[in-house]
Amino acid sequence: MARFSLNEGWELKEMGLDCKMEMASHVCGLPGWHSGLSLPLDVHMPLIASGAMKDPVLSDYCDNGEWVERRSWWFRKAFDGSALDPGARVCRLTIESLDAHGDVFLNGAYLGHHASAHYPFTHDVREYLRPGENVLLVRLTSGLEYADHRDVAEVGFNVSAMRTSAGVMRGDLRRAVVRKPTYVYGWDWCPRIGTVAIAKGAYIDETGLASVRGVGVSASLDGPDAALDVEVEVELLDILATHDADVEVSLSFGGAVVASARLDDVLLRSGLNYVRLSLKVRGARLWWPNGMGPQDLYEVKARVVCEGAVSDYPTFKYGIRTVALDVGRAGGGARDFRLVVNGVAAFCKGGNWIPADSVYARVTPEKYAALISEAVEANFNMLRIWGGGIYERDEFYDECDARGILIWQDMMFCCAAYPDHIEAFYDLVSKEVDYQTKRLRNRACLALLCGNNENHWIYGDRGLDFKEERQYGLKVSNVMMPEYVRKNCPWVPYWNSSPYGGANPNSESVGDVHHWHQCMMNPDMGKRIDPAEYDKVGARFVSEYGYPGPCAKSSIERYFDGAEVDRGGRVWDLHNNTFEKYTVNAGIRKHYTDRELGLDEYILYAGMAQSLMIGYSLESFRAKAHCGGALFWMYNDCWGEVGWTIVDYYLTRKVSFYGARRAFAPRRAILRAEGGAVTACLANDSPEGLRVRLRYGYVSFDGGEGCHGEEDVAVGPYGREAVLRFGMGGLSGREGTFYVSPVAGHGSPAKPMGPLGPLGGVGQAPAFGTMLGLEPATLRLWDLRELALCPPRMRVTGVADEGADAVYVLESETYVHGAHLKAPDGARLSDNYFDMLPGESKAVRVYGGAGVRLGIGSVPVDRLG
Question: What is the pLDDT of residue 164?
Fold first, then answer.
């Protein structure tokens, strides 16, 4: 099978919405086309480049862009057909994503209408091709004009229409009946920028008598070996006769074939044939999530040889691993919700992923790579692809495969009822589900397929009259998707919705939860901004919750597009999350200061508050043995705003990036107070067990007083458990902090925990530092402003260049809150904005920072009273 790319040399022309498909030949002959364009291509891209419109993610320019949705857009591509094989049986044109309603023509012949951005348009164009110039023409619209208002009325509701703090309505009820990314009509975290796009690639596949149409691979493990079950889908294009063929599959690593199988003399019937082969892999190199082991990837090749003609399937990478969803009984009427990878229960650490641009077609492979790299740097092992966006491009999944990021893949249904009682809609969606389950099934990163985002949850409060023939979209998630998962990829776990489980969706005892109303969206502001509220969560898996914070100053200045940054103006309000509702300022007042703040101080304090809330909550979830994962909302942005993310639209880390990174460290000690004592939980994601001597106790903020003990503790590979419990000794915690810290030179077997008692002698604070990948951990029992903090004292004791990086060693004399290197926006550090114990020494790496010397600072706190 040969592939002829059509990604380059496109042209674009704007016409009125009343310029219908019947006018194709007229439009094709008109002048005034944008030229020299490449796929993926959204109409906004050449309009911005030519100066015809301003970038709608900047300032308030999105207010002036809705006209794009009310036009027809014509895409034209001329190509030379002489490079195509005239002897091919089929020349299958594939346009991977048309957003959203498209009419396709080749050399004046009408090929058909397509009504979904979520699966490809395909057509055999052999009879229309010419040896010389060929012209491919596509008419595209946003699709809203096809939304029958009767269908919208029957659907009944869409919960995602909302008014921003700038007074702008976001959302459109029609989006539930148009198969395209629903977020483009606005959400609490993004503006309305209605997309019209050929959003992925286009090509022509030439095939002969027989071709491989698909390959599905599943793995099972047997000690150090693996068995692969491979199903090869072979299409025979002779509609009348049978033919003989050989089918073969090979598995390679590092260029060498490690396993292969061949089935000779297969009798192919007309149409589709399914051929199964088995591979035995000795000493298999397993694929593991980030932090749990390596991400070894093999190459799979499949071919069919029919009457001397060879047809190769595109080579793809494959990670040998197993994944299962454990929902077994856990006691007290509850059930577990854990992803088990290669037989090991993984604690899923990460965030929710949205499309990385409001104009999603312009996301580059480099941006995908940067975002996945930053997720790895933040110690993620999972991203949840939210159901109101897109099935991402292959480059995204390639990066996740290579870097060990598990994917919770929502199907693209979100926060609305859907007309699955309409046969045409149900059939359209079935093509999408069939295609995407086949497309993604061999991805090492694919951990879970999920039917929708929040649809089951929002229906529970509405008392809808569910019937067999009328399920408001839930038939798609409850019936259609399980059928296609079983048919196309039964080895991939499936979950009906998120949140889902228990007597009502969002139960803490079964399934996953979206923890919103108890904290961040609670009408009680005190509960929104108190990190200790997250200690009360008893969920088995937290797949959404969040807390907002601002971008870096340079990012804010970029989206203000040269205008003065006015925190009381309309642009600020427009780029402020709809649900923020004064939470950021309230968090600053609770944790830091009541003073009026300039922009720099606002960014610093708001970032520190977000870091505190995200970091503390993630540790709370991780410390609970019954919790299988924590995914905060959300990881990345599609434009710049005061919002949920830890990496902003311009790929700049927020302060909160470091709070999340510390909470997700591969080895982490977590302290919590309970019953007059402090419990230390030790989390170890690595395949090696951890034995360490912990020094524990209490130290005053000035380092002058303390009481300390030592205990040998251990946690197994991939372990997470309470290892130490000690009394508070009647100390209030206002003048100091409780802590645990690894002790150098020790690693003897753990001793049983003794009874609670005195912590040890009173004396000077010991030296603290990171050992065996484990940092000291502290516990504050009071809000920062209630503590009797002393003036911070720290210094740089050493700095050296190591290759392109600079490594600083910081040492504190007192307790220091928010210790940081004064790095410019965009700098990448191994850690920043961290707390230090008195006498602690900490090394910080500045990536790419060789030859530049940075100052140090801390974050001041205005004490109450």
Answer: 62
CA distance 182 to 473: 15
Contact present, 628 and 179 (Cβ < 8 Å): no
Tell me 850's DSSP state: T
- DSSP state string for 561-607: TTS---TTSHHHHHTB-TTTTTHHHHHHHHHT--S---HHHHHHHHH
Q: Is the dihedral of CA 12, 15, 20, 26 positive or negative?
A: negative
Distance set, CA 560 to CA 367, 431, 555, 573, 654 (Å): 22, 42, 9, 12, 18
pLDDT of residue 173: 82
Pairing of strands 185-187, 190-192: antiparallel
Distance between CA atoms of 564 and 553, rounded to whole angstroms?
12
Separation CA 373–CA 355 (nearest Å): 16
**What SS3 string covers 337-348?**
CEEEECCEEECE
Lowest mean pLDDT among 455-469, 568-582, 768-782, 831-845: 455-469
Q: Collapse the DSSP code of 360 into the 3-class scheme (helix H, G, I; strand E, B; otherwise coil) and give the result.
A: helix
CA dihedral 556, 559, 563, 565 (to 10 degrees): -30
Pairing of strands 348-353, 382-385: parallel
Neighbouring residues of 824: CB distance < 8 A, sequence distance ≥ 6: none
Under a CB-based contact definition with an 8 Å cutoff, are residues 157 and 567 in contact?
no
DSSP assignment, residue 262? E
Task: Give the DSSP H or E segment for 681.
Answer: strand 677-684
CA–CA gap between residue 673 and residue 777 (Å, rounded): 13
Helix axes 481-488, 423-440, angle to 10 degrees: 30
In the chain, what is the straight-line distance between the N-terminal and C-terminal CA atoms, in Å? 76
With a pLDDT cut of 70, the percent of the chain lying above it is 94
With a cut of 70, say whether residue 462 has pLDDT above it: no
SS3 182: helix
Query: Given the structure tokens 């082969």, which residue do they identify?
Result: 277
Q: Both tokens of residue 637?
A: 């942005």
For residues 863 and 641, the answer to whether their CB atoms sit within 8 Å is no
Q: What are phi and psi of 808, to 5 degrees?
A: -105, 145
The predicted structure's pLDDT at residue 464: 62
Per-residue confidence (pLDDT) for residue 333, from 0 to 100:
87
DSSP bridge pairs for 697: 708, 739
Number of Cβ within 10 Å of residue 746's Cβ equals: 15
> 3-class DSSP state for residue 181?
coil
- Angle at CA 235, nearest 5°, toward 233 and 239? 150
* pLDDT, position 276: 98
pLDDT of residue 754: 34
DSSP 654: P
Spatial contact of 105 and 153, defined as CB atoms under 8 Å apart: no
Cβ atoms of 68 and 15 closer than 8 Å: no
Residue 848 makes CB contacts below 8 A (sequence gap 6+) with: 804, 805, 827, 828
Least confident of 15-24, 382-391, 541-550: 15-24
* pLDDT for the residue 169: 73
- Judged against a pLDDT cut of 70, whether residue 759 lies above it is answered with no
Alpha-carbon distance of 663 to 245, in angstroms, equals 56
Digit-coded pLDDT (tens) for 613-653:
999 999 999 999 999 999 999 999 999 999 999 999 999 99
- How many Å is the Cα radius of gyration of the chain? 29
The CA distance from 844 to 722, in Å, is: 29
pLDDT tens for each residue of 124-182: 999 999 999 999 999 999 999 988 766 666 665 555 555 565 667 788 888 888 999 99
What is the DSSP secondary structure assignment for residue 478, as one 8-state letter? I
What's the pLDDT score for residue 473? 86
Structure tokens that stand for 704 in this block: 């002058």
H-only helix segments in 64-221 = 149-155
Q: What percent of the chain has pLDDT over 90?
A: 87
- The token duo for 780 is 């504050």
